[in-house]
Amino acid sequence: MGWESLDRWGDDVVRVEPLVGGSANDVWSVRLDGRLVVARSGSRSDADLHWETELLRHLDREGLPVPVPIPTSDGRLFADGLVVMTYVEGEPPTTESDWRRVADTLRRLHTLTQGWPQRPGWRSSTDLLHTTTGTKVALDAMPPEAVARCRAAWARLVGRQTCVVHGNPANPGNVLVTADRVTMIDWDEAHVDVPDLDLALPHNAAGLDDDAHDVAAQAAAAWEAAVCWKDEYAVRRLAEVRAV
């Protein structure tokens, strides 16, 4: 299991060096048949990896820049929790113009994935108005007052159309920008939800009016507080969610 399965991608494959990746994964640069790629090893289920890799293939076919899964020698997109993907060049966004391009890319993602099925085991923010658990979220581990604040933020999203959201696009480490391309990486938090969760960006790059920005910012802060509970980051994010 794990890294010993890397040989499923062929005989000419070797790990090069560790990369910064999602907290749930071990991510390395890899040399595959002489080219640099990225490999990620984790404990996600086959159903979860199927959802993620099929999503990335769909987005690539539609022309949205993403890390593209590379099949094993026998055509599988993952093996024993291991996924190999194309290496993406670029730098994190820094300017307001960069972030506006990120917003445009996110809106393309949202348009391309309307009607997409939910990631296995996940719940949307509005689902959590009526249930307490979903993959990384366990509302029953949070203080009742914190749950009430989060749910009040998410209640403002009820009735809106859903799609795939990246889940953590405001983290500049999850975006790579070049002169002609914006690529979202680290799809660990992607799931089906209301697109507002992706649009509380630096500089209000999505161009939301005051009310829409408040809805998005409150919902996103509540989501990250719930997903990360109870580390220091989650406590800081919860502090941004208004009391009820």
From TrEMBL:
Domain of life per record: Bacteria
Gene3D superfamilies: 3.90.1200.10, Phosphorylase Kinase, domain 1 (3.30.200.20)
Residue ranges occupied by any Aminoglycoside phosphotransferase domain in the UniProt entry: 16-222
Alphabetical list of Pfam families matching this protein: APH (PF01636)
PANTHER family for this protein: AMINOGLYCOSIDE PHOSPHOTRANSFERASE-RELATED-RELATED
Official protein name in the record: Aminoglycoside phosphotransferase domain-containing protein
